[in-house]
Structure formats: C-alpha cells, structure tokens
Amino acid sequence: MTGGRVCGDENVVLSNVAPVDKALPGELTFLSGAKNYATHLESAKTTRAAALIAPEDAPELPLPSLRLKNPYMGLVKALQFFFPEEKPGYLIHPAAFVSEDADVAEDAIVGPMAVVEAGACIGSGARICSQAFVGRGARVGRNSLIHPGARILHGCEVGENCIIHANAVIGSDGFGFTLDNGVHIKVPQVGNVVVEDNVEIGACVTVDRATMETTRIGEGSKIDNMVHIAHNVQIGKKCVIVAQVGISGSTILEDYVTLAGQVGTVGHVRVGKGATVAARGVVTGDVEPGSFVSGFPIKPHSEERKILAALRKLPDLLKKVRDLEKQLETKE
Amino acid sequence: MTGGRVCGDENVVLSNVAPVDKALPGELTFLSGAKNYATHLESAKTTRAAALIAPEDAPELPLPSLRLKNPYMGLVKALQFFFPEEKPGYLIHPAAFVSEDADVAEDAIVGPMAVVEAGACIGSGARICSQAFVGRGARVGRNSLIHPGARILHGCEVGENCIIHANAVIGSDGFGFTLDNGVHIKVPQVGNVVVEDNVEIGACVTVDRATMETTRIGEGSKIDNMVHIAHNVQIGKKCVIVAQVGISGSTILEDYVTLAGQVGTVGHVRVGKGATVAARGVVTGDVEPGSFVSGFPIKPHSEERKILAALRKLPDLLKKVRDLEKQLETKE
Amino acid sequence: MTGGRVCGDENVVLSNVAPVDKALPGELTFLSGAKNYATHLESAKTTRAAALIAPEDAPELPLPSLRLKNPYMGLVKALQFFFPEEKPGYLIHPAAFVSEDADVAEDAIVGPMAVVEAGACIGSGARICSQAFVGRGARVGRNSLIHPGARILHGCEVGENCIIHANAVIGSDGFGFTLDNGVHIKVPQVGNVVVEDNVEIGACVTVDRATMETTRIGEGSKIDNMVHIAHNVQIGKKCVIVAQVGISGSTILEDYVTLAGQVGTVGHVRVGKGATVAARGVVTGDVEPGSFVSGFPIKPHSEERKILAALRKLPDLLKKVRDLEKQLETKE
Predict the structure, then answer these.
(1) What is the pTM of this model?
(2) Which chain B residue has the Cα nearest residue C221?
(3) CATH superfamily to which C97-304 belongs
(4) Is there a contact between C274 and C253 (Cβ–Cβ < 8 Å)?
(5) What is the dihedral of CA A159, A161, A167, A172, to 10 degrees?
(6) How far off is chain A from B36, nearest CA to CA, in Å?
(7) Residue C304: what are its φ and ψ, rounded to 5°?
(8) For residues A303 and B211, what is the distance between their CA atoms, to the nearest angstrom?
(9) What is the pLDDT of residue A2?
C-alpha cells in the first residue's frame, strides 16, 4: 500500500496508528525524520507497538519495520487506512435549503441548515457541511469539502479536491473607499474569488473578492487559520501561508512562496517564486525569488539575525561610547 | 449621472466597466489618480475600451472621456450602474426563523436559516442574509445589510445604511475577570455595542459588548476584516481601521483616526482626532491629534524611520566601537 | 450575599448597578481598586448613587457602602443579581436539528438552526445557542454555553461550566503536510480537542485538533477573541491568553501562564508555570517558570525595555561614533 521495504515479520496484524511513546500492543507506530528523531529512535527500542514505519536508513530495530524514503508518506497512508473519512447517511439533508435553481451533483452531500442559493453549482462527490453557505452563482468543484459555517459567497469559485474549514469566508467585499468631501464612499466590489484545485483554507480565514476581476489562490496552495487575504491578491501555485498572516490588496505571491506565521505585507508588492518570509516579517517591498527574508522592513534573514543579535548589545554600546567620549575628553 | 465633463463623442453606448488593460470593445474604463497613473496613462493609449473616466487634468486621449475632479467617484457610479445590487425573490424566507415577538419592517428581507429573536427590530429595507443572527432585543437600522453568518447579539444596535460582513460578531462578551483565591471569576458583561449609521464592518471582526454601558463605533467608520475591538472601546466618527488590528479595552479613538494593518493598542489610551498609526505600530500611550506615529513603543513616524534605518548600521557600529576602543588602548 | 461589611444605612433599596459617574438615584455603584482609584474616589463624593461597593480600607464616604477585600467580587455578585441570565422559552427549538442518535439532557437547550449530530452528548443545563454546531460524537458538559455560530467539531469535548463564544471553532484540522515530489500531501488530522471545565473561549477563536491524540485546554483557562491554537498544543490550568495570540503546533503552556495580546510562539516550545509574555512578544524558545519576558526573540522584560529605550538613542549614537572617529583621525 505504501510502497516501502518490509524488515522483519511481514504478517503482523495492526489495529491502529499511534505515536511511538503512546502506541499499545498491536498498533503501528512511526519514526519521524524530524528534529526529535534521536528521542524517537530511543523510544522505538521500548515501544509496545507491533510494527514501525521508519526512514530507509534507520538502524536495525527490535520490531518489524516498514522502510520508506519519506516515512511521513507512510504515516499519511496509515492514517488514511485506519481513519477512513466517515460519510453521513444522507445526500441532501431535509433540513438543508437548496434552491431549485441550483445545480447539485447527484452524489453531492448537503448537510442540515446549509444553504445553496440559486445558480450555485456543486460538483460530484462534493460535501457542503451543516450550516455552510454557497451563494448565488458560486461553484464548488468535485470532491471538495466545505466545513460547517464556511461561506462561499456569490459568484466565487472553489476548485476540485479543496478543503475550506469552518467559519472561513470566501468572497467578502474588498476594503475599498474613495474620499468625497471627507466622507468615505464605498467602491462597489464586483469581482470574485477563484480558489483553484487542491487548495486547503483554514478556519476563520477571510478572502476578499476583487474590486473588479478576480482574487486568486493558486493550485495546491495551503492556507492556515485566520489568514486575511485582501482584494485583488494573486497567490501562486503551491504556496504555504501560516496562521494569522495578513496580505494587503493587489499583492502578488509567485509559486512556491512560504509566508510564516503573523507575517504582513503592504499592498502592491511581489514576492518572487520560492521565496520564504520568516515569522512576523513585514513585506515592505518586492522580494527576490528564492530568497529568505525577515524583519520590518524586510531584509535578508541573515542580516536580520545579525541585527537582532547586535540589539542585545546596544545598551552596553551606549555606555561604551560614553566612556570613549570621556576618555577622549580627558586626553584633550 | 456623475456630474463630470465629457470630452469627445457623447453618444457612446457602454456595456460594462473594466480595468484599462482588460477592457473589451464597448466597455468603459478608468484612469486612476493613484501611484500607477503613468502606467495607466500609457495603457489608455492602446485600450480597447470605448470610453474612459479620467482626472480633469489628464492629457488629451484617443477615446471619448469623462473628466472628473475625483475619477474614483465616477468609477463608483459606473460600478453602481453596471452592477446593481440583486435582491432575492422573497422577503421573509420560509426557512428563516423569525420570532413572533420581533418587529420586522414590511419590506425587510430575512434569508434562509437566519434567526431573528424576540424583541429584535429590523428596519425598513434592511436585509438579514442567510444564516445571520439578530439576537433578543437587538436592532438593525434602515437599509442595513447583515451578511451570512454575521451575529448581532442580544441588545446590540446597528444603525442605518451599515454593512456587517460574513461571520462578524457584534456583542461578544468582554474579556473581564477578577481573581478570587487564584481563580478567575467572570465579571458579567451586561452592556451592549452600538454601531452608528454608515459603518462597514469586515468579515470575522469581533466587537465585544461593554461591561456596563456601551462599546461604540462612530458614524461612518470603516473597519476591515479580522479586527478585534474590546469592551468599552469608543471609536469616533469616520475612522478607518485596517485588517487584523487589535484594540484593547476602554481605548478611545477620536474622529477621523486611521489605524493601519496589524496595529495594536494597550488599554485605556486615547488616540487624538485625525491621528494615523502606521502598520504594526503598538499604541503604548496617548497619541496627539493629527500626528502620524509608528513603532513599538509608539513614536513620531519620522523618528521611527530614522531608527529603522540606523538599525541596519548597528552590527557595523559594534565593530567600529570595538576598533575605536582598540585605537585608544594602543595610544595609551 | 457578598459577605462584606456594611457601613451606614443597611436598609437602602437598590435598583441597578452602574459606574460611579453614571449611576442614577437608587442605583448601586462601586469603587474599584484599579488605576483610576483616585478619580473614582473623587467621583464617589458627588455620585447620585444610593450605595457603593468599596475596598475595605477606603476612607469614610458620604453614602452607605459595602466594604470588601476584593470589591470586584462585590461587583460580580451585584451584576449577577441585577442581570440574571435570561433563558429562552424552549428546550429543543422546533427549528433546531438534533439527530435522534444524539444524547441530549432533558433540561438542555438547543436553539433554532442549531445542529447536534449523531453520537453527540449534551449535558444537563447546557445551552447550544442558535446556529451553533455540535458534531458527530462531540461532547458538551453540564451547564456549558455554546454561543451562536460556534462549532464543536466531531469528536471534540467541552467540559462543564464552559463558555464558547460566537463563531469560535473547536476542532478544525491541524496544518500538517508532508512534501512528496514538490506536492504538499495532507497528513490526516485524526485527533481531537479537549476543553476542560470552567474554560472560556472568545469569539472567532480557532483551536485545531491534534494530528493524533489531543489538543488540550486546561481547567479554568480563559482565552480572548481571535486566538489561534495549533494542533497538539497543551495549555495548562488557569492560563490567560489575550486577543489575537497565535500558538504554534505542539507548544506547551504550563499552569498559570499569561500571554498578552498579539503574542506568537514558534512550535515545540515550553512556557513555564506562571510565566508572563508581554504583548507582541514572540516566544522563540523555552520560557522559565515565573519569568516575565517580552520582545522578539524573547528575553527578560527588563532587558527588552532597556533595549527599546536605547533604540531611541541609536540615530544619535551613529553620529557620536562618527565624531569620535573623526576626532581620533585628527589626533593621529
């Protein structure tokens, strides 16, 4: 199933998967390649588990093991096997409201108190959970999962195999006003949001619709909880955006960009392909492809680290300079 | 309709409004006065659009144009014209729950799965979208729009012509406890929130009710997504609060204050009329009216910029001081 | 009722509780022991209130007073007395959806448009408000209050006497992926969240379920609005977490920890018992029990304050060092 190499007894029967220090007899466990690898390896010698997923190059172990280049992929497959997704016993729940002008695939699921408005389109195998909302003319692609309370507002599109977590909002109005005699006049936000295939969007995320045209989240991008994405933002393919990031209007993230937790961007900047912005950074200008930047204003991460280290010496430096000044004065 | 001056053919028939580089034949486009003005002007020479909204002082252009002092106001009007708000084909939807003790105007709209509790009052022309909530004794004023999943909790008031975006929460409890023998005892939060007229509140915003009395958001203020407003905060008229700002308890913002993205305030401070706090600033004390401040702790923006520039020289400065010390030592 | 000592007329009849400068004749007011104590004391001399709650050691006052060691506890009791919680006139509302396979206590309340799925368990005296969600196999303990739009997702547990505010999400998936040939593969998140007794969780908070096992929020902890708690986090007992904090995966907070507003933590760190992290701090490593830390990276608060003070002298310091260099040059 996982394509790895088995070391030891091939006929072990397994009942569950659990961490190495918690697994019970009969369970499968795993050795991650992560930073706690050494500790895990130690635990593996005393685990009660019946078998173990391990990196290919792990030392010999006292229990049958499945060797994989990427043991995490083995864990993913084991978790999928032991915890298959549960489907409810209904398709369109009688307590849902689905407009007769909506186009819902025959095998799609719509939970109680969910709303699917006129002109909306729900693809085959998609699931609109309890109390979720799919607005007028919005589309949810095949096999996508819209969790309870998530809102796909009018005219927005979610691709195939996407996951939109609870209470996320796709398609709120962009924050756009023009001043007319000291009064903020709302610029109508008439664009939409397109979420491409294989995207995951966290709980309580907000993605604003474009003023005109489209706010876009590229194929395979993964967005953590409570991220704010403003109007007209363009997010490339396979980006990773960690919790509580805020992306200002018209920002462009090229493909494979990573924004760590609580990062912010000013508007109208471009973050180049494969660039990473470290946690809490503020993207104050364009970022070179492939670079690793941090701080406020943004700068190469190595420079930021030197500055942060130097800062701890600053109070002492003030004293030193005062001393130097005195010494020079004395000499004069 | 927009009150501007027409240059060129007055009889052009227009079908849509779109950005200058995307407009199709027969469409209206616009030249903004913003930072990309030069680029836009260049695009205007080759646009396929049939007509253009431009600033009064723009150069002569190869297509009919409407000249306005504030071309954005022309864009606003064009967007309102080409994208009129769609009203649903119902008033109180049969799948809504409206208490018989609620007072809902004859022409108000209440969407499916929305809840309007006893004693609530919904004004003429107001719209409570699908799955929104208006609690016991709460009020929503004339022509206000409450988006899907927004919660106007018991006793809170929303004025006229307001927009409350999806999944926003108006009237959650303030975060108030008193320690009694090492245990945090909840201080009941019995006040409310008043949102005055013409206010817009973004998706997933939370506004806490006052402990006693009222948390207030002043007339015409605009609040972006995911802003947190704590109990007893007083926000003046026509303030602008950008995404992910956090405002601590009992903070006072006077009129016309701007807080840029991800700003925080400590509690019990006053931000003076017309002051601006730059992005990520932390308001650690009172802010003078009309000032432009930033950083943590808060200081004049010009000072903060000098500090940030100086910071990049700090690692080098450490070396220089070490050199100076050595030189002085050698001399002795 | 409050256990204090009465000074003056014991037979005053009171109709409400209000702040000292706003109270009307016949109302009760209070003198807090907080930072505005002196101002409050002055107001107490002219208040129209009929009686006053005051600290034991307050001076003699011109109106009857109730003397308490912790006057806030008196305020809590007065607020509870004058503002008793209103219960709706139904138990399970006809517009709720409760699975016939759910176990709902006889005296529990379930509001309109709420959903309680199969296998869920709602304890005695608990209240699931309008449009709230309790998923498959989830549990809500005795006397807990789940506000409108809050989501207790499948398999998660909320203890007794808890309050979960509007639109909070308990049990969203952790943000876990493994790279397989440049593609992010989702690691199934099959654990849950356990919220112990007496916990309060703010509006729009998100708590992710553990990858395996449990994300835990300890007894009596209080969490403000819009806090993000990642998968596998362990929060101890009686912690206080202020608004917009982000806690990364597998972080451990021991008991009595305080995280002030907008704090962030990197993953896999431990914050020791009773430690406090000041607002906006970034917990970049383990924190000693009982310590008071701040900044990014985290350091003793006293050190951070010295650095912030020194920073304001940095631009001037650059000039001074340049001068010193010149002086030395001249001397050579």
Answers:
(1) 0.96
(2) B184
(3) Hexapeptide repeat proteins (2.160.10.10)
(4) no
(5) -10
(6) 10
(7) -60, -40
(8) 46
(9) 62
Name the CATH superfamily for A5-82: MurE/MurF, N-terminal domain (3.40.1390.10)
Tokens of residue B241, six digits: 């609060």
Site of tokens 């409108």:
C148
Task: Say yes or no to pLDDT of B26 above 80.
Answer: yes
Each residue's pLDDT, cut to its tens digit, for chain C (332 residues) gives 666 788 888 778 888 898 888 899 999 998 876 667 788 788 888 889 999 998 888 888 888 989 998 888 999 999 999 999 888 999 999 999 999 999 999 999 999 999 999 999 999 999 999 999 999 999 999 999 999 999 999 999 999 999 999 999 999 999 999 999 999 999 999 999 999 999 999 999 999 999 999 999 999 999 999 999 999 999 999 999 999 999 999 999 999 999 999 999 999 999 999 999 999 999 999 999 999 999 999 999 999 999 999 999 999 999 999 999 998 888 76
Name the residue ranges covered by the structural domains of chain B: 5-82, 97-304
* Chain C stretch 115-154, residues whose beta carbon is closer than 8 A to a beta carbon of chain A: 115, 117, 131, 133, 135-136, 149, 151, 153
The residues, ordered by sequence, that sit 6+ positions from B204 with a Cβ below 8 Å of its Cβ are: A167, A169, A204, A206, A226, B165, B166, B167, B168, B225, B226, C167, C204, C226
Of the listed ranges A177-186, A259-268, A308-317, C25-34, the one predicted with least confidence? C25-34
Chain C residues within 8 A of B172 when measuring between CB atoms: 147, 165-166, 202-203, 225
Polymer length of chain B:
332
CB-CB under 8 Å, B75 with A180: no
Bridge partners (DSSP) listed for residue A134: A116, A152
* Range 77-106 of A in CB contact (< 8 A) with C: 79-80, 82-83, 86, 93, 95
Q: Which run of H or of E encompasses C292?
A: strand C292-294
* Subunit partners of chain C (3 or more CB pairs within 8 A): A, B
Put simply, the answer to whether B72 touches A264 (Cβ < 8 Å) is no
Which residues, numbered 292 to 331 in chain A, qualify as contacts with chain B under a Cβ-Cβ cut-off of 8 Å?
A: 296-297, 299, 303, 306-307, 309-311, 313-314, 317, 320-321, 324, 327-328, 331
B192 to chain A nearest CA, in Å? 24
Strand partners, B65: B7, B52
ipTM metric: 0.95
User: Is residue A93 annotated as a catalytic residue, yes or no?
Assistant: no
